Amino acid sequence: MLQCIFLLSDSGEVMLEKQLTGHRVDRSICAWFWDQPDSFKSLPVIASPTHYLFQIVRDGITFLACTQVEMPPLMGIEFLCRVADVLSDYLGGLNEDLVKDNFIIVYELLDEMIDNGFPLTTEPNILREMIAPPNLVTKMLSVVTGNASNVSDTLPSGAGSCVPWRPTDPKYSSNEVYVDLVEEMDAIVNRDGELVKCEVYGEVQMSSQLTGFPDLTLSFANPSVLEDMRFHPCVRFRPWESHQLLSFVPPDGQFKLMSYMVKKLKNTPLYVKPQITSDSGTCRVSVLVGIRSDPGKTIESITLSFQLPHCVSSADLSSNHGTVTILSNKTCTWTIGRIPSDKTPCLSGTLALETGLERLHVYPTFKVGFKIMGIALSGLRIQKLDLQTIPPRLYKGFRAQTRAGDFDVRL
Amino acid sequence: MSPPAASQRYPSPSQPSGEVTDLKSQLRQLAGSRAPGVDDSKRDLFKKATSDIVLKKMCYLYVGNYAKGNPDLSLLTINFLQRDCKDQDPMIRGLALRSLCSLRVPNLVEYLVGPLGSGLKDNNSYVRTIAVTGVLKLYHISASTCIDADFPATLKSLMLHDSDAQVVSNCLSALQEIWSLEASHSEEACREKESLLSKPVIYYFLNRIKEFNEWAQCLILELAVKYVPSDSNDIFDIMNLLEDRLQHANGAIVLATVKVSLQLTLSMTDVHQQVYECIKSPLLTLVSSGSPEQSYAIFSHLHLLVVRAPFIFALDYKHFYCQYNEPSYVKKLKLEMLTAVANEGNTYEIVTELCEYAANVDIAIARESIRAVGKIALQQYDVNAIVDRLLQFLEMEKDYVTVETLVLVKDLLRKYPQWSHDCISVVADMSDAPYILENLIENWEEEHSAEVRLHLLTAAMKCFFKRPPETQKALGIALAAGMADFHQDVHDRALFYYRVLQYDVHVAERVVSPPKQAVSVFTDTQSSEIKDRIFDEFNSLSVIYQKPSYMFTDKEHRGPFEFSDEIGNISIAPEASSDIVPAQQFEANDKDLLLSTDEKDDNKGVSNNGSAYTAPSYDNSNISSQMQELAISPAPPRLFCESTGDNGLDSSTITDQTHAESFHSLHRIGWSIYKLQVFLLCLKGIRSIIKLSHRVCHKLFIGQGTDKIESGRAEYVSGIRHPI
């Protein structure tokens, strides 16, 4: 199992080291790791001369775990992902300063999450009960009273209950439950303008503050569009198999109820028509963006970004709507916002190629970003959410949102 | 570790935060107390610390980290820890017990047994969980103490009767480890270990699998893999119990379930196929929903499955299209997947997609995708369209695209000689091949890579047989320069060519440039036996390295990758590649060969300074007249070793290869002239990048079967592949 976990800053400094077993892992492994060439270092699983290393990088922080024995690789990677999620949840983001300011929390969390190299509890709800997340109030308290404790005095009851994701008896004066459909559209448009792939990855996110032991049932109007579902452990399998009903006892607070895919969609809400013609060392670029199929709600925060090829020496690009920025690393971003009603946004300009090059042979890929509030592009609709016993003062809410995931338009 | 390391873990004074600075000052005191004579202050601090749980935790951490270095001092902490083990608060009891077991000081084990025993009987499950892990820690410090206290038996009863799932799963992991370590010298442990795999125990776990947390579920599924079912009903029962695990959000569980299902049904072919169908969509979802790191691990497994059953993903090939933002390690695996799933139905789409990557900004991926196109072309029967595409690549005039395409064209032509006309017509006339070669040879001294020089020699030879008058001079210079070369292989090859030419020009032609034969199948780089072994180790690191575990865990198989046990002297040469192995084998007979060839040279009066060979009189008749005087020296194995080894023949057979066999194999590696010309004319187009041409040169001219070694080497150069 895992022998040691290191957290490295983006300059390769070891910020934190947690030895898990009797076999100590020397820090020099981190130096070795950091000196590897980039293409090798970016691999999630690496064999060093002494250990096998698992690593993930989140917001510039490298989570590195070492082992010397055979183990399921995904277990190591999944665990590190979980650690990163929990830490960023606790610290409200991840960066060097946050980790350094909250060493104690991080150590406490790691202590509860893994013992002797074997993962224990990674359920955020339970951890939250054992170790209070840092917030302004506790910081104030510790300064004022001098009492530095952020550990709750009682042990989490969920740790021992038969529904491990839920504390035994939470009490709320007002009961609230919200369901969010969050979808991401992945699409590839090839050089001929054909839609090669278009699918939606969606999540049902919930936020529940319910008293007692609620038993919920969520149903969809059109569950048949869903493919490849993945459920939170609280979802009962049988009702879904037989009636496509999500029946569950929810965790307390925010959680991801399920994720799903909807494949083989026919249309993207936007079209992007790029054109590049090159002749005797200069290229003319023109990109048109417009609405292909109106989703019924406003498409917001439209952006288009692409990497200029290395052989481009200078670029002069302008647009009739929105702003164009070109960074020093040759990333060009065109922020459009909303599509105006009176004109079609168009980016145009010229690229000068390096001397000696007549024509452009390497073409950029355009990445499209957008956001649509209030609608799920997959067409999935929530029918209703039932509670077995209805608590007093219950608020239920639904919301939907779609944004672009990996939406590539190739040229 | 030295005390400064402790302060390193805490932030610098420039970023104070109430809690941390307070703690830091206290821990500084603690660090100071390590000096002899100030033990009292340490004790004081511990007293103070007991009032605050966070401070306590940090003290435990500190003590745990440094106890090993100062076993005597850590004795002082035992008292406090033991007292804490009896605290009212279960959390403190648990923490103290965990720290006590984490001290890992052998002479303190006697203090562990008592608290552990009561910890295992504690009425709070949190404490029991920690105590169970503590038993395992104790076992690693002192196995005999652990066994004497009869802890394994206690764990076993806890495992079967405790109400808390976490306690049960910790018992399972602890017992597995203890018994498998004990099994080597205790029959009882052996029996116990097997009893874990008995039907009641397995069902006991599988029936309540949903109660366990996700990591414990992984552990149970791993246990279930080892279970040998009694009959088919047994298999179906287990499969039913595990059905919904495939839908779990944790990828580790899904993969473990897949492994159980695949292993259970190995004997039942039709069910096995159904299993493939069932696991397909959960795996594909995992790939698209997880982080890139997770995708990487899953893709490695998918790749394994695809190789065994290409049909299952044949319709889902669009999942493996690369998105622009993905990290290159994922893209690379996706390209491999696309290659593997290509069949008659989807080749057109896949190749179209791959061709788009060739113009991609990411050069490494562009290269890989061209290679993938080539692999598909070699698998398929209908290659018309693909050849057209490849020819378009040549027109792109990007150096790396041209290089990769040429290598592919070489392989394709070997399989489909009929396409050669098309290819050659693209590169038009071929009249100045000898002159380009001449240029290269004139710059012999500037060519640093021995590999390239070797292939220049071969190229000059081949060109000579096709167009003797024009190449003769260049060949003379090349042979002379070759024999004067300081590199042993180059020297030997030049000498070999020289002698073959002397012996008989026609024999030489047969050896160096034999008539080409179409190749039907290129050998796979991995044997099916190895693939099966990797499949048996599904859901392990083996899959990611694409090697069975014995190859990277056994010392003998580690090859050039030296695993030292001391971390201090980590040293790895990333260049260490597969070609090291043959080179080492030749070292043994290197010395006497060197002597013998030199001696022979002297005896026969062949001077190495080269002037003799550049003389205009050096022609065929001259050679044949000398032929009588100079017989080819019998069996200088090194000459053949070098060339055959390089060409990917089994190196173990090389050393005892007889003369005739060597000729035979050289015959097989021959390469015909038109490919040389294809190359040379392309070279004309990209003359400005002459450096790069060396790679093409050595890739193109090396003969048959070089794919593996060559592409490996090339990838080290371009930094794509890694020596694992």
Automatic annotation (TrEMBL), chain A:
CC per GO annotation: clathrin adaptor complex; endomembrane system
A GO biological process held by the record: intracellular protein transport
MHD domain mapped to chain residues: 174-410
Protein's cellular compartments: Endomembrane system
Keyword line: Membrane, Protein transport, Transport
Gene3D superfamilies for the chain: 3.30.450.60, Mu homology domain, subdomain B
Name of the protein in question: MHD domain-containing protein
Organism name: Brassica carinata (Ethiopian mustard)
From TrEMBL, chain B:
Keywords assigned by UniProt, alphabetized: Membrane, Protein transport, Transport
InterPro entries found in the cross-reference section: AP_beta, AP_complex_bsu_1_2_4, ARM-like, ARM-type_fold, Clathrin/coatomer_adapt-like_N
One of the record's GO cellular component terms: endomembrane system
GO molecular function: clathrin binding
Subcellular location: Endomembrane system
Record bears the keyword Iron: no
Chain segments carrying region Disordered: 1-41, 597-618
Polar residues bias (residue ranges): 9-28, 605-618
Start and end residues of each Clathrin/coatomer adaptor adaptin-like N-terminal domain: 49-428
Biological process, per Gene Ontology: intracellular protein transport; vesicle-mediated transport
Keyword set includes Membrane: yes
Predominant cellular place of this UniProt entry's protein: membrane
PANTHER family, per database record: ADAPTOR COMPLEX SUBUNIT BETA FAMILY MEMBER
Free-text function comment from the UniProt entry: Subunit of clathrin-associated adaptor protein complex that plays a role in protein sorting in the late-Golgi/trans-Golgi network (TGN) and/or endosomes. The AP complexes mediate both the recruitment of clathrin to membranes and the recognition of sorting signals within the cytosolic tails of transmembrane cargo molecules.
Family stated for the protein in its record: Belongs to the adaptor complexes large subunit family.
Subunit structure as annotated in this protein's UniProt entry: Adaptor protein complexes are heterotetramers composed of two large adaptins (beta-type subunit and alpha-type or delta-type or epsilon-type or gamma-type subunit), a medium adaptin (mu-type subunit) and a small adaptin (sigma-type subunit).
Protein name: Beta-adaptin-like protein
